[in-house]
Amino acid sequence: MPDLHFEPAYQQGVEPITPAPEEQAAIARAFEGASSVFGALSTLRTRRMGLGYQFESGEPETFEWSSGRTVTQPAGPLAYASSAPPVPLSEVEEALLAWAALGPNGVVLADVPVQGGLAGLVSWAGRTIPASSNDLSVDLFVINDEGVWLYRPAPERLAAVEIAGPDDYWKILHWYRNDRVQVSDRRPDVGWFTAPEGTHNVNALGAGQYNLNRPGSTWFLPVGDVGLEWFNMLLASYEWSGFYLMDPDTQKSTGVEDFIRPGFLEVGFPVPVFDDLVLLLHASQAACSVQNIRLASEALGLGAWPVGSYADDLVLGAYPEVAVGLGFDFLERDPDTNPSATVTCLGKPGVKEPVVVPSPQFPTAADAVRYVRSLRYGPGGQLSRDANWAERNHGPYQSESMREIIEHPKAHIADWVEQAAVATVEYIVAKHGCCPAYVNPVRAKFSAQVHHVDVEYYRRFTTGNGRPYSITDAIAGHFADWHPGMADPTGGER
Length: 494
Fold this sequence. Notes:
The chain is α+β, with helices and mostly antiparallel strands. 32% of the residues lie in helices and 15% in strands.
């Protein structure tokens, strides 16, 4: 597994880039000229109609990137086919949105008492979204006409506050160009209908997904390592909460009887309830990422469509006979021991490798538990005594306080906690074939698709005196501001 923390050459090796004048001006406009957060919230809407899209037109369309399927949405009262061609987002637009989604914003405060769970934090690298134990478990897949990209900025930080003024604007492009890896050179086939031709339209993407992944759009897909959150929450629960996982079938512990006593583990917590809790913690990260994209899009004058009614297992690639999706690998599970018919994603080697047992990267329970523990204390970790992340990244704590933290016994997970966690995972794997057992360790359920708004649709169908209320100044003037020299396909008017 790649080390999440230790990249000692990052700060020293980064040379500032010089954005082109128009790029610098565009980023400055986003940071300095956009509406306030409260202004954006007042006009925030989901605008689903982008340039090149259609609604219930009754006209068949064939998408080469979707296995050549021809699809038709039946004609209806809002029948509309955009007369404008798709206009993809520019690199600067995508870079700003990706940074808003989960980009670096400096060093977290880590203001958790040492005696109150500081050791539960997995990382001190700040991002634009909060996360359970700041575990950096969610990455962003960027899907556009050029293919699929993984946006995962390095966990090292260049400053305690990364974007402090105009001299830092170059970082937005730096992260997008250097911390983004191409996964595929084409849009993923996420399918349309799972039923054979001529049968009921069973659409695995949901009834509202006719325009999802359409040419010209950029689909921002947060993909989370729920397994990492699960294992980290297990360590934190055993260390700080006194809860132990309990088998709901037997009402007994999951192999930790030796640790059930005062001061250690005292109260049972059913495994499926624990799994649901972890899933909710993951969902909060994805939701914050999507909301950031919506607010940023509103400020930039773009349409943002939050979407989550698709089957994310299908998008990840669990059913290649229907749609290849992102092509992730999956564990074959015994139906007789699978408690909720849950698929178990093993990720994509070298791209997204979740913490799940058994898997190529984590064959045993001990491998997984020790890996998650090592994120704090391994070389370069924030609680490591050697090449400490906080000292290297200049924060959050002053040097004297940092050394006191590192040496305090409560800043280190107790050995018995690791032993109990390993015993629990071994129990769950023996009974259900894998751990986590009740939830998929990789989720991609909530996302946002961003596009240039087809203003004509809203002129035709929505109300307003003069300009429709759905069209803000930022949308009406978007092409003049962000694509000067390009003919405005929306007929924008300020």
